[in-house]
From TrEMBL:
Residues 1-36 are annotated as: Disordered. Signal peptide: none annotated. It comes from the Bacteria. Pfam families: zf-dskA_traR. Keywords: Metal-binding, Zinc, Zinc-finger. This is Zinc finger DksA/TraR C4-type domain-containing protein. It comes from Candidatus Yonathbacteria bacterium RIFOXYD1_FULL_52_36. One of its GO terms (molecular function) is zinc ion binding. Residues 1-17 have a biased composition (Basic and acidic residues). InterPro entries: Znf_DskA_TraR.
Length: 116
């Protein structure tokens, strides 16, 4: 279990690093992140540039959402370690297989329930 905890802590650090390159912490919601808007100088921008900026922002927002979802899973798994409920399937309550946790230490279901 210690090695899973270590893996989760490492992944959390990594995700926060990635997130800070595409987004910023939402100052109003603790633990929430938002994509940083593309810096567009409206006075200078021609329509093509604005479109490119919007596209770039949308790409970054999609990446940001993905990273944030994963960060939530990882943070949640760490909270379950603290609570002593880590490694239990959320569907059947049985222990999650160790090799499954090795592949995804934030897993919340056993192999039998991983797709449900
Ligand atoms: Zn299960």
């Amino acid at each position: 279990m210690e090695n899973h905890k270590q893996a989760l802590i490492e992944e959390k650090k990594h995700l926060e690093g990635e997130l800070s390159s595409v987004g910023r912490r939402n100052p109003e919601v603790p633990g929430d992140w938002e994509a940083t808007p593309a810096p567009i100088d409206i006075m200078m921008a021609d329509p093509n540039e604005v479109a490119g900026g919007v596209e770039e922002f949308e790409g970054r927002a999609a990446v940001e959402v993905e990273l944030e979802n994963r960060l939530l899973e990882v943070t949640d798994a760490l909270a379950r370690i603290e609570a002593g409920t880590y490694g239990m399937c959320s569907v059947c309550g049985n222990p999650i297989e160790d090799d499954r946790l090795g592949a995804n230490p934030a897993a919340i279901t056993c192999k039998a329930h991983m797709n449900g």
